[in-house]
Amino acid sequence: MTTTAVEDNEALLRITDLAVDYRTGHRRWTRAVRGVGLHVAPGEFVSLVGESGSGKTTVVQGALGLLPSSARIRSGSIVYDGVDVTGWNDQRMALVRGNHVGFIPQDPNTSLNPVKKIGQQVIEAVRFNERETRSAAQHRQAALVSLRTAGLADAERVFGQYPHELSGGMKQRALIAIALAGKPKLILADEPTSALDVTVQKVILDHLVRLREELGIGILLVTHDLGVALDRSDRILVMRQGEIVEAGSVDEVLGNTEDDYTRRLLNSAPARHLGRLEPTSGAVPDAAPTVLEARELTKTYRLRGGRELCALDSANLLVRGGTTHAIVGESGAGKSTLASILAAFATADTGTVRIGDRELTGLRRQQLREIRRDLQFVFQNPFTSLDPRFTVNRIIAEPLRAFGLAKDRRERTARVVELLTAVSLDESYLHRLPSQLSGGQRQRVAIARALALTPQVLVLDEAVSALDVSAQAQILQLLVDLQAEFGLSYVFVTHDLGVVRLIAHDVTVMKDGAVLETGPVERVFRSPRHEYTRELLAAIPGARLAPADAR
């Protein structure tokens, strides 16, 4: 594929033949990045795409002079505006970071200081990057300008707030303001929207595009989401195992893909599929009568200062046996609160929940324990939901032991092997620790653990949102296959309507604790009745990936 020709003195950033090694033992090094080359011109939007472990973050850290002490640049060059900064120490690179390149990290919850007000943090960036001494009043004014440029219209109010008082989208805009404080020519954004809801993601990416158009800033976006990259970029670079395996314009990547890995990424994107995934076996179970029902659930949390937060407002939900019912909404919509009440992890202030013919409200601990045999929970993050000290065997065997479902260790291990087989893993995984598994493999183990008690219902709370697109596609297909094999019912909590289309039969849309819309997925996607649902649908990334007859 072709790449844009840019002279060295025209490129804001040019990386040539970069190779980075990591120390893995005494005098032992492993190559993490090999032969990587890229460039970004003024006003250009370039995306670096790849899954976890592909080397994207290493390239970013190398470009910013932020590689850990366990890493070294073996060869290659990093050039900003014609100046070779390869091998510069941290003090010299600090002059580049901020004044030439602004960095937007992935997670605003860990990147912002929780005990400092937003304005103070932006002022610190202004002071660090200033080219001339200014007064405190001038620093404040420059920080407010930066906040407004980052898209925060109410900059005065945000200036005096702490991070915990802001939404996820506002926190990310605050990070953009910090990145803009030095008036950089280039922004390097490392997964800046992966922790955000799709509508907030769209707002943030729209704003980055405006910065490119209005200020001529070059942008290098690092992402695992090929759909996002295709929606926004001038050029796309695809990384795999430390190398760039594909490079070209959006049209070239879509229409003339040269690499099998890139084709797999394209085919794994939710936007590539119009309808629900079919079971691999070809068997589609018939929907059974209602297996789980919630009526008029309310939940109010009491906050500091006497304030109250209505998390659920008369919410209703009905799950048909053998089907998947998705609950959709942005952060704060009440999805997780509803899921927790359905799974009996939390209690509602008012309302009822029934699984089959059994009422969950008011049950004692022992009675709830029996209910958990029929209703299991799969958590969002596979990296925190498994005990790091336990082997896979022990993790999956734990519920069998707790409920006395196997007479001895040998029988438990045999059952664990059956469960691993059900989630497409083999017995070679028995003695591995979670740290020795990929994200997708960890989530398979979490699902196997949930299946150990042969439940009727699985509640999955954002169970694929932390996974790369190909791992996500594999887990979704696995869930469809397990549903066909065992007649399982799913409550699938997500903020991504693109995923809903792949897996769900019915969908409930929530906002601010209330149910706005519910019905069959086909009807809701075809003719949404609420404006908020239409906004969610419009925010699904990857429009260019959709089949031509669906655009």
Task: Describe the structure in your own words.
By secondary structure, this protein is an alpha/beta fold. The chain folds into three domains: 1-100 and 189-268, P-loop containing nucleotide triphosphate hydrolases (Rossmann fold), CATH 3.40.50.300; 110-183, no CATH class; 288-374 and 453-550, P-loop containing nucleotide triphosphate hydrolases (Rossmann fold, 3-Layer(aba) Sandwich), CATH 3.40.50.300. Helices cover 36% and strands 26% of the residues. The protein is built from 20 helices and 20 strands. It has a six-stranded mixed beta sheet with strand order 6-7-8-3-9-10, sandwiched between helices. Strand 11 and strand 12 (308-321) form a beta hairpin. Helix 4 (118-129) crosses helix 5 (136-149). The chain is globular and about 70 Å long.
How would the blueprint of this fold be written?
Layout: E1 13-25, E2 28-40, E3 45-49, H1 56-64, E4 71-80, E5 83-84, H2 90-96, E6 101-104, H3 108-111, H4 118-129, H5 136-149, H6 155-159, H7 168-180, E7 186-190, H8 198-215, E8 218-223, H9 226-232, E9 235-240, E10 243-249, H10 250-255, H11 260-268, E11 288-302, E12 308-321, E13 324-328, H12 335-342, E14 350-355, E15 358-359, H13 365-371, E16 375-378, H14 392-402, H15 409-422, H16 439-451, E17 457-461, H17 469-486, E18 489-494, H18 497-503, E19 506-511, E20 514-520, H19 521-526, H20 531-538
Parallel strand pairs: 3-8, 3-9, 6-7, 7-8, 13-18, 13-19, 16-17, 17-18
Antiparallel strand pairs: 1-2, 1-4, 4-5, 9-10, 11-12, 11-14, 14-15, 19-20
Helix pairs in contact: 4-5, 4-7, 5-7, 7-8, 14-15, 14-16, 15-16, 16-17
